[in-house]
Amino acid sequence: MTAELCHIIRDISQDVNVPSDGIVSRTVYQDEHLKVVLFGFAPGQELSEHTASMPAIMHFLRGESKITVGERKDEAVSGTWVHMLPNVQHSVLAVTETVMLLLLLKCGKPGSAGSAGGGHP
In 3D, which of 35, 13, 29, 26 has the Cα closest to residue 98? Predict the structure, then answer.
């Protein structure tokens, strides 16, 4: 069996049904290097402060949110892109209906082949 050379999702921002009250998340892609999760936030919903054990990217596709990354507080709108190192505390509060794509970079996870001390120069 051969691996697919690419994975295409057209207009991924439309690939989530945002609930009227709550948060929905769905893994849209995963392999040994990357996990991609699509989130839909109703207005006023919050993903409370937490950390990820690997580098992560939040890409806001639609809506407006207030974000905290480490000590920094900011606003995220359509097109906002945020890169975070492992174990950085972060949170998201949706001001309007928000769609966000989360990319978890497994190659930067401690102990993986792509992380510091993982065997690569």
Answer: 13
